[in-house]
Amino acid sequence: MRKTVHMSNITKETDVNDVPVYQIVSGTVLDQKQAEKYSAASAPLSSKAGLEIVASGSPELMEGQWPHKGEMTHIIKFRSMNDMKKFWNSDEYQEVKKLRKDAIDIDFIIALSAVE
């Protein structure tokens, strides 16, 4: 899959499977112990998928409005869109994700391809 990126007067076409993908997750931890169980259970799968948390914490709003209550925001790097989707859609992760259900109230999860 090819994607064309337009920024100002720069146009760049890239194959989204050849560049890293950043997943942005925002939410609120409701049950810390259950969230820790989710984190521990997802860690081996995350490692296998090459997932890397590159930023984490409460977002600092610089401009505009942040309509989410998210106390926790992570930026997670994957090697490619294929790797991210393979991890996300795997039976193993779908099972582990059930641990997150009552532990974390998710505002949103999005994925963006890097511009390289």
How would you describe what is shown here?
This protein has a single domain, classed as Alpha-Beta Plaits (2-Layer Sandwich). Helix content is 29%, strand content 38%. It contains three helices and six strands. α1 runs antiparallel to α3 (91-97). The longest helix has 18 residues, at 32-49. The protein is flat and about 35 Å long.
Concise account of the structure shown:
With 116 residues, the chain is of the alpha+beta class.
Topology (SSEs and partners):
Blueprint: E1 2-7, E2 10-15, E3 21-29, H1 32-49, E4 52-57, E5 72-78, H2 81-89, H3 91-97, E6 104-113
Helix pairs in contact: 1-3
Number of domains: 1
Strand order of the largest sheet: 4-5-3-6
SSE topology string: EEEHEEHHE
Instruction: Give the overall pLDDT as a whole number.
Output: 87
Percent of residues in beta strands?
Answer: 35-45%
Task: Return Rg in Å.
Answer: 16 Å
CATH C-level category: Alpha Beta
Based on secondary structure, the structural category is alpha+beta
